[in-house]
Each structure stands twice: as C-alpha cells, then as structure tokens.
From TrEMBL:
This is C45 family peptidase. Residues 121-341 form the Peptidase C45 hydrolase domain. PANTHER family: BETA-ALANYL-DOPAMINE_CARCININE HYDROLASE, PEPTIDASE C45. It comes from Solicola gregarius. It holds the Pfam family AAT. InterPro entries: C45_proenzyme-like, Peptidase_C45, Peptidase_C45_hydrolase.
Amino acid sequence: MTIQRFVTAERDPRTRGEEIARLGAEHVRANLDGYVRLFRAVGVEDVRLREFGTQAADALAAWRPDLHAEMCGVAAGTGLTEWELGLLNARTEVLAAVGAVGEGECSTSVYLPDDGAPRGVQTWDWHDELDADRLLARYVSDRGLEVRYFTEFGMLGKIGINDAGLGLHFNILNHSSDSDPIGVPVHAVARSILDSATTIAEAVEIADSASVSASTVLTVLTYDGDRGDAACIELCPAGHAVVGPEDGLLVHTNHFVDPELARGELAPATASTYRRYKHVRSLREQVADPDPRRRAEALAVHEVDGAPVCCHPDPEMTFDQRWESLLTTALDLEHNRMWFHDGRPCGVRPETWHAF
C-alpha cells in the first residue's frame, strides 16, 4: 500500500504539521514537484507560481489561522517555503485560474435509509502519475472532535469523517466565475468542516464564509444515532447552493446540479460527468447496500458499461490528460470509520478493503 497513516494526540496545529513532515517530508516534496510539472503542462508560467502560492497562503491565514499554522509547520519540517505549501494546497485553484478543465474525476453517491446512518461511497479520480504520495490522518480538532481524513501529502484535507457523526465527500467542479487571484483553497474548506461542523447547517455556514476562487462540491452526510441526512454544497466564487437528495438518493459527479449555478457550467456537453451521474443514479439498489464493500464494488462500471465511473488511464494521452480512480472509499458514520481500497473499484477484494 502507498497510503501512509498518521495518528497524533498533538493539539497545537504547527507542531502537528511538523509531525506530518517528519512522517513524509519526501512525499510532500514529491507532490509539490508533481504539481509544478502539471501546472507547467497546462500553461501556468513559472513566474506566476510564487504569486499563486503566496495568494493562497495569505487567504488561508486570514480565514483560518490554525490551518495556516499547520501548513507552515509542514513547510518548516520539509525545508519548503510557506508559498510552496500554499501552491500545493491551491492546486485546484491554480488549475481553475488558467481554465484547465479536466475530463476525468470523482463520482459520489449517498443513500439515506428510512432509519440508520447514511451510506456514502465515492471514487477519487486524479492524474495517475500523482498516485504515490497520500495520507490518512487521525487527530483531535480544536473543537474536540476526533477527525479522520484522507488527502494528498502536504494538503490540508479532502475526504473524511468526525466523531460527531459527520462525513464529507469531495468532487471538483468548474465554473465561469473561477478566476485569480487565488482565494481560500477548497481543500482547506473541506478540512475546516471536518474540524468544526456537526450538522449540515454548520457545514454550509463554514463553506459560505470562505472567499474561494475555484469550484467544488462538498457532499456532507450526518448521523445522530437514529436518523441520517445529507446534502451537496456546490461552491464557486459566484456563491453556493445546497442540493438535497431525491427519494433518498444523493449523487454528484463533476457538473453543477443547482439550476442557477449551472448557468456558469464549464464542463462541455460531451464530458463523462453527465453519463457518470446518470449511471450512478441507476445503481440505486447497489449503492444502497448496507455493506460498504458492496457499495464500492457497485462502482466498478466502465466505459463499455455506459460510463467510466471506474476510471482507467489512457496510455495514449499525455500525463495532464490521463485520469485514474486512485482510491475507492466509503464512510461508515455508525462506527466512525473510513473504509477504503487503494485503487479502482474493479480491484476491490475482501483482502484489499481496509478500515481506518
């Protein structure tokens, strides 16, 4: 397995960042090198890298000083600068600033039973050459919540849960309002929700408080020990929208569902996101399975089946145009666990399915 695990009782954010650096400084540096290569491939000029990184770090410091302190701890422990860690955390924002709209990306599903915890599952699809340097972390936030999350080394957050019964899935979006200067990184928004939110309303308030320059959708699910709830928070510089489930099922891929925000959609009509969205919705019975592994296996749907939910890289494409399902994960709010397979849904087996 290439996913490192980090568990700490450290409550000081800068010290926690330094601990992450001690665990995987080489992984952080490798991710930065990989993203600089990606930025160059999509047309970002080298002279703008420091500018973008500095803007991201400044926006984060103004919005969440604690997360900025953790990021600076990682920087100090890896021998990198603050702006370089800002650049890494703003990888979504940098790509949005130059209009780099990708074809492949994540698919998320949440089923709400009549009683019991929501049943969430997703693929995390990204460039196949950025596969090796990933992290699962567990710690206690300033609010006293035990948080578990998955991310790329050096980035503040992505997919996760906290022990208040809140989980979060993460998908990228693209909107005509995406721009520079760089705002609060959306990965930091996801992490702040995991650190502090216990309800969907709190998650929406946190997301709305961030001045972002790029788009994302944060699918938040909650469980109070009796009943569950879920909503997609579509976020872009033009504003946010909350999309609820239809008949107990909530699906999101990589296009805006809210009709107002969809007016600024950048994904072309030929993009796979629309077919993936429709196909995952058709899998209602499978993604409603109470067994998290069976939900993950349900996403083993390929282009030949009608939609590339399980994404395989095309060796004929350049690295910036190749995507792969690098992680398959399900959130278990009832038992406060993340389940995951290190790879594509079609490779999920009992022996490859792990809890964190």
